[in-house]
């Protein structure tokens, strides 16, 4: 648990990588990226947060950020980014799935949209690993009975000559 809590500890650019790892624990994943290295720590309920540290060729911290944000997702370029670009931008997916009818692989990322809404971003790849689309929505883990949750609905209908009606519904 100490490793999970420690991802939220702020870091200072210029820190040696050994100090970063001492504070954060061993990263879950490491990505080489040109002359830098990216270290990733998933965090939070269902990995709704993922923090990445970029380490320079001198072994010092360049940046440390939560990459499960709307701003980070917006950096992904449809029809240009490949799987490696996506990994280095938003990290390892929470789930993966293959859609045989569309012949696409989907990487899904749970996150807290605007820090409050349980959301899921889906990134769709073609057979060559190029991003072909993205889709954002509510995280299905937080739906109640497969619906959008509690609510109230009022409907008015007319049956023409046969009759009409008014209905009120409350959902839980």
UniProtKB/TrEMBL annotation:
Keywords: Membrane, Signal. One of its GO terms (cellular component) is outer membrane. Residues 66-133 form the Outer membrane protein assembly factor BamE domain. It comes from Oxalobacter formigenes OXCC13. InterPro entries: BamE-like, BamE_dom. The lineage of its organism: Bacteria, Pseudomonadati, Pseudomonadota, Betaproteobacteria, Burkholderiales. This is Outer membrane protein assembly factor BamE domain-containing protein. It comes from the Bacteria. Pfam families: BamE.
């Amino acid at each position: 648990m100490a490793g999970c809590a420690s991802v939220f500890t702020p870091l200072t650019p210029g820190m040696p990588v050994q100090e970063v790892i001492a504070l954060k624990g061993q990263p879950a994943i490491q990505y080489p990226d040109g002359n830098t290295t990216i270290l990733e720590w998933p965090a939070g309920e269902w990995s709704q947060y993922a923090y990445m540290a970029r380490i320079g060729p001198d072994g010092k911290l360049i940046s440390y950020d939560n990459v499960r944000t709307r701003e980070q997702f917006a950096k992904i370029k449809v029809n240009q980014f490949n799987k490696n670009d996506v990994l280095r931008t938003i990290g390892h997916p929470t789930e993966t799935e293959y859609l045989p009818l569309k012949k696409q692989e989907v990487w899904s990322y749970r996150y807290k949209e605007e820090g409050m809404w349980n959301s899921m971003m889906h990134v769709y790849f073609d057979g060559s690993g190029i991003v072909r689309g993205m889709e954002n929505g509510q995280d299905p883990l937080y739906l109640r009975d497969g619906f959008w949750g509690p609510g109230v609905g009022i409907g008015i209908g007319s049956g023409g000559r046969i009759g009409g009606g008014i209905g009120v519904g409350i959902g839980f």
